[in-house]
Amino acid sequence: MQINSDFSQTAALQLNHYNWRTTPQVGVQRVMLDRIGGEKARATTVVRYAPGSTFPNHSHPGGEEVLVLSGIFSDQSGDYSQGWYLRNPPGSSHAPSSLGGTTIFVKLWQMSLTEATHTRINTNDSANWVKENNYHICPLYQDKGEVTQLIKLTPHQCAPHHLIGQKAIELFVLTGSIFHNKLEYKEGSWLRVPSNKQTLIKAGNKNATIYLKVGNFKNIS
């Protein structure tokens, strides 16, 4: 399966265009944002668990990245409410579930195979935020090929050019809205822009919070 698999092109999806699809697991639905492969795929997805949904224990050979958008997501390591960021390295395994239901933003097979650390960050904790060049930033992960963080933008504020520059970016709008090339992306929208495209990102009329990944995505395992 190939969905938004050409990383030389801009790709985007607005919340009002979500196409929820059933998964092999009862009670679990997903919106495929980008995907290369079948059930074992390099994928970026929004996943929705109905209350009481469970997944059997399974492994992630290419790693897994999770941001909890709503509800409570659970696995053997704990219970994670809205705002928690989880990073499970290649070769890890778990049995996820949600007693009351949850929606999560998930990325699979997009980590360096040398990554070995489990990460758990509560982005609701102010201690995990720093102020840098007039931006409030919650660092999530960084290595030579990737920088991932949450950024809070004030109305009409541009995303940090010193970070983005002409690099490839991917973002998910958590609150508020942002503009890219005069198009507005509201809460729940996903946007991926290649390095050869203009990447001026600007908040709308209200405060905005975005998940932002900067890196060379097509070369990530």
Describe what this molecule looks like in 3D:
- 2% of the residues lie in helices and 53% in strands.
- It is mostly beta strands and 221 residues long.
- It has two domains: 2-121, Jelly Rolls; 126-219, Jelly Rolls (Sandwich), CATH 2.60.120.
- The strands form five sheets. Strands 1, 3, 4, 5, 8, 9, 10, 13 and 14 form a nine-stranded antiparallel beta sheet that branches. The chain has a seven-stranded antiparallel beta sheet with strand order 2-21-18-23-17-16-15, with no helix packed on it. The chain has a three-stranded antiparallel beta sheet with strand order 20-19-22, with no helix packed on it.
- A hairpin with a 3-residue loop joins β4 and β5 (41-49).
- The model has no long low-confidence stretch (mean pLDDT 92).
- Residues 9-111 form the ChrR-like cupin domain.
- Pfam families: Cupin_7.
Give keywords.
Jelly Rolls; 2 domains; 9-stranded antiparallel beta sheet; 221 residues; mainly beta
- How far is it from the N-terminal to the C-terminal residue, by CA? 17 Å
Strand content of the residues, in percent? over 45%
The radius of gyration computed from the alpha-carbon positions, rounded to a whole number of angstroms, is: 17 Å
Instruction: Quickly count the helices.
Output: 1
Q: Which percent bin holds the helix content?
A: under 10%
Quaternary structure annotation:
single chain
Can you tell me the residue ranges where pLDDT is under 50 for at least 5 consecutive residues? none
Q: What number of domains?
A: 2
Order of helices and strands: EEEEEEEEEEEEEEEEEHEEEEEE
Quick one: overall form?
globular
Question: What fold name stands as the CATH topology of the largest domain?
Answer: Jelly Rolls
CATH class of the largest domain: Mainly Beta
